[in-house]
Amino acid sequence: MTTDEAVGEGSRARRLGGHLVLGVLSLLCAFPVYWLYATSLRAPEDVYSLSVLPWPLSTASYAEAFATSDVLGMLLNTGVVAVLSALGQLLIALLAAYAFAAWRFPFRRLLYLLFVGTWLVPFQATMLPNYVLLSRLGLLETLAGVIIPTLCSALGVLLLREHLNGFPKELLDAARMDGRSSWSTLWTVVVPALRPALAALGILLAITAWNEYFWPAMVLQRSNAVVQLGLRSFLGTEGNDWGPLMAMAGLACLPVFVLYLVLQRHIVNAFVRSGLK
Amino acid sequence: MTLVSRIQLRGLTRRFGAVTAVDDVWLDIADGEFLVLLGPSGCGKSTLLRMIAGLLPPTEGTLHLGDTDITHQPPQRRDLAMVFQSYALYPHLSVARNIGFPLRARKLPRAQIRAKVAAVAETLDLTALLDRKPRELSGGQRQRVALGRALVRDPGAFLMDEPLSNLDAKLRAGTRAEIAELHRRLGATMVYVTHDQVEAMTMATRIALLDQGRLEQLGTPAEVYDRPASVFAATFLGSPAMNVLDATVLTVDGTLSARAEDIDLPLGIDATMPDRPVRLGVRPEHLTIAPPGEPGIRAVVTGVENLGSEEVAQCRSGTARVAVRGTRPLGVRTGEALTLTARPEHLHLFDVGSGRRLTWQPGAVPAAV
Ligand SMILES: Nc1ncnc2c1ncn2[C@@H]1O[C@H](COP(=O)(O)OP(=O)(O)OP(=O)(O)O)[C@@H](O)[C@H]1O
Ligand SMILES: [Mg+2]
C-alpha cells in the first residue's frame, strides 16, 4: 500500500508539472491572439490602453474598417483564392499520385524524384520567372494570376502518394476485374477510401493559401483585393491605425478558426497519418 | 453469357527480371471444369492466375477463351470474375453495394441490380448483413461477400486465389463443401489456386501441379495421387508424404525385384533386364507389417503418432526414414524391429537423375515417361 502511494505521488507531481508547463506555453501562444481581439474591441481613444480587459466595449474599430474598405469583398476574394487553389492542388496531386502509385511506366522513379525535387526549389527562385510569365500573359493584378502558379504542389503529390502506397493493390485489381476502367476506379474506389486524407490535405492547403501575403502582394501590386493586403491600408508612414487594423486582422482569422474548430479531428488525423505529427 | 468458356494457355511464360515465375505452361481448361492449380509457396500459382485474369501481361505465350485470342484484352473485356486471397472488399461500401459493384460498373438498371444482389445474398446467406460495412464482418462472412461479388456477374469463368486460406479449419471445411456445391449447381468453369492438398483432392475435377513455374503433372486427383509423375508429385500429395528410398532393380529367378541393403521387394514383373538404380516410392498407408522372415523393408520404429482414428509409425531403415500409416492401434512400439511389405501395384519407381516416373514396357528396359 505504502509503496503504491509513493509511486502514485511521484507520478502525480510529475503530471502536475507537465500540465503546468503546457498551460504556460498555451497561454503564451494564445495571448497575442487574445490581445488582437481585445484591441479591436476597445473604444478608439483606448487603443493604447494596457488594461487586460477591453472596457468599455466598442465596435467603432469594426465600423471604421468596414467604412474605409470593402472588407466583405476582400474576404470573398480571399475565400475564392483559397478554395480554388486548394481544389486545384488536390486534383493535380491526386492524379499525379495515382499515376505514380498504380502504374508502371518508364522513368517513373526519375519523374517522381524530379516532381518532389521541385519542392526543394525555394519560392524566391521561382517568383521572378513566374512574375515575368504572368506579366506576359497579362494576368498581373488579377486573382487568376494569384491562383494559377500555386495550382501544382509537390507536397500534395508526396503526401497523397504515401497514402496510396499503403493502399491495398488488390483493391485496384478487384475494381479492374469488376469492369472499372482505371479512371473510374480512381473515382469509385480510391477517392472514397482516401476521403479523410483528401479532406485534411485540402484544409491545410486552403489555410496556407488564405494566409499567403507575399505572392498576392507581388501579383496584385497596389490593389487590395485580398484581405491580407487590405491590412496594408491601415499602416501608414505617419503612424498605424491600430483599431481598424486589428478589427480586420481579427476578421481574417475567423474563417481559419471556424474551419479548424469544425474539422479539428480531420486536421489532426491528417498530420498523424502523413507521419508529420 | 459466354457459352464457350474453354480456356487455353499456350506456352504462358512470365519473367520478373531474372526470376522465371511461370515457365512455358500449356493447359486446356474445359468448359465446366474445376481446375485446381496446386503447388508450394512461390511456385507461380498466383502469377499464372493473374495472367489468366489479365492483370499481368505474359512475357511469352498466348491465352484463348473459346475461339478468341484474349492475350491482349484488358480484364474488363474478359468476362472472368476473381476472388482474391485478401477478399479485396471495398472498405467504404456496404455489403449490398460491394456485391452490386460489378453490375453498377456495367450500368445495369437499378431495379435489376437490387434484384440480383438480393438473389445472390439469399444463396450465400448474407441477407441479414447487407447493410454492414466489410470491417463489421467476420472472416467467413467477408469470404462469402467476395464470393457473392463474383457470383452476381454470371461470368464465363471464376478465378479464385486461395480464397479459404484466411479461414480457420472448421470454417474452411464448410466453405470447401459450399464452393464445390456451387460449382456443381452452376456448372461454371473454375480455376482455383491453393497450396492445400486437401482442397485440391476434394474439390478438383483436375489438378495442375506446379513446381518452380513448370507444370509438373496434370490429371484427376486420383491420377495424380495414384500415379504421381515424379518424385516431386509423389511427395507433395499425401500425408505423411510418400516414402522414397534408394534401391536397385535386379532380376532374380526371372522376375524383377527392388533391392537395397535393407530392402527386398518383388515388383511382380516376370522379365529380365540389366540392373538399374532407381528411387522406390511407397505410400505410408500401403505398407503392412509382415511376419518376421518375409522379404520386405527392414526398419526400426522410432516413434508412434496418434491421429485419432489412425496411427503413424515413424521408422528408420538404414539411413532412410519410412512412415507407416494404418488403423489404430498399429500394435508397434518404439524401438521395435519390423519388416514392412507392400503389394507390387503400390510400388512406384522413379528415375534417379530426373525424378520422373518409370513404367514397365514389355520388351524394353524401363523408360522414363
Ligand atoms: N511483381 C513481382 N516482381 C518480382 N517477382 C515476383 C513478382 N510477383 C511474383 N514474383 C516472384 O514470382 C514467383 C512466383 O510468385 P507467385 O506469387 O506466383 O507464387 P505463388 O505460387 O502464388 O505463392 P504463394 O502460395 O506464396 O502465394 C516468386 O518467386 C515471386 O517472388
Ligand atoms: Mg499466391
Concise synopsis of the structure shown:
The complex is a heterodimer of chains A (277) and B (369). Chain A has 277 residues and is an all-alpha fold.
Summary keywords:
heterodimer; A: 277 residues; mainly alpha; MetI-like fold; 2 domains; 13 helices; globular; B: 369 residues; alpha+beta; Rossmann fold; OB fold (Dihydrolipoamide Acetyltransferase, E2P); seven-stranded antiparallel sheet; six-stranded mixed sheet; 8 helices; elongated; binds adenosine-5'-triphosphate; binds magnesium ion; membrane (chain A)
CATH topology call of the largest domain in chain A: MetI-like fold
Shape of chain A: globular
Q: What is the name of the CATH architecture of the largest domain in chain A? A: Orthogonal Bundle
Supply the helix-strand structural class of chain B. alpha+beta
Largest interface, counted by CB within 8 Å of the partner chain's CB: A-B, 18 and 24 residues
Subcellular location (chain A): Cell membrane
Keywords (chain A): Cell membrane, Membrane, Transmembrane, Transmembrane helix, Transport
Main location (chain A): membrane
Transmembrane segments (chain A): 20-37, 80-103, 110-133, 139-160, 186-210, 242-263
Helices and strands in order, then pairings?
The complex is a heterodimer of chains A (277) and B (369).
Chain A: H1 2-40, H2 60-68, H3 71-102, H4 108-117, H5 123-137, H6 143-147, H7 154-165, H8 169-177, H9 182-193, H10 195-211, H11 214-220, H12 227-230, H13 242-273
Chain B: E1 7-16, E2 19-29, E3 34-38, H1 45-53, E4 60-65, E5 68-69, E6 80-83, H2 95-105, H3 110-123, H4 139-151, E7 157-161, H5 169-186, E8 189-194, H6 197-203, E9 206-211, E10 214-219, H7 221-226, H8 231-236, E11 243-252, E12 255-260, E13 263-266, E14 276-282, E15 288-290, E16 297-306, E17 310-317, E18 320-327, E19 337-341, E20 348-350, E21 357-359, E22 367-368
Parallel strand pairs in B: 3-8, 3-9, 6-7, 7-8
Antiparallel strand pairs in B: 1-2, 1-4, 4-5, 9-10, 11-12, 11-14, 12-13, 14-20, 15-19, 16-17, 16-19, 17-18, 20-21, 21-22
Helix pairs in contact in B: 2-3, 2-4
